[in-house]
């Protein structure tokens, strides 16, 4: 089967399945992205690979996924650029005390619990000997992730459904999630730089180049883009080229393209992204991210649950949920938020979703995660995100928003 036939056929199957599951998720009062992620999982060995192995072999054999990977990377760059553009650092600095305290609590406790769970998973599933310490740090970071875009979507959906979240709780959650994501990307970028390095000198050089590039973008490119006056067509070209170039640079440094795309978004004034360009990037990500969900599903290994994997999944879920909810709640409470509101903030910060999947796929490609642990963590991301809405309903009194 030629590429001109195979790639459109792959995308058609992926779009039909993921969009149908997304529509079903909306009917169940879940974020659409949860359904799309579930659709991607169904396309892998969990469902289609078991029920229709011939179709899976024809469409999604490992040797036939290279162009699908390219399409998914386009979607990731567009998505992460928008995430960065929506991060308003000025709002974070205006509420710095509460935001820092809440973010610290929602990162430190799940990070610690993730580090404690890591030896158990290493004992059960193992990783290459040289990657053991990297695995422990990576798992701790993965436990600490909050998905800002999915959280924002949950808040918008609840407002549209007539059950809005308290404005103070919503703002605090969004700002803490934004800072959480920014810190997570930085830690992961540094970790990948170290893991890609050979000797000590090469590691130092790689980290130095990463820091230098970040400084150039934040101190040079960001202020320049806020001062310069350009015609609309020039801005359009700039907004297309900047995330692509930035992603290429960080990928060339061995950091992964996600950091470059996110960094480019932070540097661009949000008013220039709003409107037509935002719709363009949303269209691109809407049509290409399902390929990423499908690749995620194809990497999962359901057979591990025949050998006690459910126990490990429950352990991971307990550490992830308790770490995020309790850590976020105590961080917000110590900063002066009433405890009832602080609890709701902790529940909202337990949202992981798509951002978590991006991190996990990066870990899988770099050899930090094997297929079994990757499967467990993907399921953790889906479950913790899906539980946000119902848990929020459970702890919010009917006469309180």
Automatic annotation (TrEMBL):
One of its GO terms (biological process) is proton transmembrane transport. The chain crosses the membrane at residues 6-25, 37-61, 67-87, 99-121, 133-152, 203-221, 233-259, 279-298, 310-336, 373-392. It is a multi-pass membrane protein. The keyword Transmembrane applies. It comes from the Bacteria. Keywords: Ion transport, Membrane, Transmembrane, Transmembrane helix, Transport. It is found in: Membrane. Residues 16-392 form the Cation/H+ exchanger transmembrane domain. Gene3D superfamilies: 1.20.1530.20. GO terms for molecular function: antiporter activity. InterPro entries: Cation/H_exchanger_TM, CPA2_transporter, Na+/solute_symporter_sf. It holds the Pfam family Na_H_Exchanger. GO terms for cellular component: membrane. This is Cation/H(+) antiporter. It comes from Terriglobus albidus. The lineage of its organism: Bacteria, Pseudomonadati, Acidobacteriota, Terriglobia, Terriglobales.
């Amino acid at each position: 089967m030629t590429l001109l036939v195979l790639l459109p056929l792959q995308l058609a199957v992926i779009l039909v399945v993921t969009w149908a599951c997304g529509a079903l998720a909306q009917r169940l009062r879940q974020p659409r992205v949860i359904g799309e992620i579930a659709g991607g999982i169904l396309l892998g060995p969990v469902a289609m690979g078991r029920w229709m192995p011939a179709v899976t072999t024809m469409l999604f054999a490992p040797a036939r996924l290279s162009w699908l990977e390219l399409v998914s990377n386009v979607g990731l760059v567009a998505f992460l650029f928008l995430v960065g553009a929506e991060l308003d650092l000025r709002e974070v600095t205006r509420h710095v005390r509460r935001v820092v305290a809440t973010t610290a609590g929602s990162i430190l406790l799940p990070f610690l619990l993730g580090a404690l769970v890591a030896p158990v998973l290493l004992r059960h599933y193992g990783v290459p000997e040289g990657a053991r310490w990297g695995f422990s740090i990576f798992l701790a970071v993965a436990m600490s992730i909050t998905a800002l875009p999915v959280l924002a979507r949950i808040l918008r959906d609840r407002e549209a459904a007539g059950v809005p979240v308290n404005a103070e709780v919503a703002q605090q959650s969004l700002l803490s999630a934004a800072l959480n994501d920014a810190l997570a990307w930085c830690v992961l970028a540094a970790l990948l730089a170290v893991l890609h390095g050979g000797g000590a000198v090469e590691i130092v050089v790689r980290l130095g180049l990463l820091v230098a590039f970040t400084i150039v973008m934040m101190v040079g490119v960001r202020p320049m883009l806020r001062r310069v006056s350009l015609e609309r067509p020039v801005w359009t070209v700039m907004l297309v080229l900047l995330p692509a170039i930035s992603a290429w640079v960080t990928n060339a440094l061995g950091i992964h393209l996600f950091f470059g795309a996110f960094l480019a978004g932070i540097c661009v004034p949000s008013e220039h992204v709003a409107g037509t360009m935002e719709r363009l990037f949303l269209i691109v990500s809407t049509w290409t991210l399902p390929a990423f969900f499908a690749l995620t599903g194809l990497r999962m290994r359901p057979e591990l649950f025949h050998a006690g994997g459910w126990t490990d999944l429950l352990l991971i879920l307990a550490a992830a949920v308790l770490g995020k909810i309790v850590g976020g709640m105590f961080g917000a409470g110590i900063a002066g938020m009433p405890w009832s509101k602080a609890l709701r903030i902790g529940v909202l910060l337990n949202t992981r979703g798509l951002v978590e999947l991006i991190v996990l796929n990066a870990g899988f490609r770099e050899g930090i995660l094997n297929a079994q642990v990757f499967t467990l963590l993907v399921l953790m991301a889906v479950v913790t995100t899906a539980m946000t809405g119902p848990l929020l309903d459970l702890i919010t009194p009917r006469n309180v928003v």
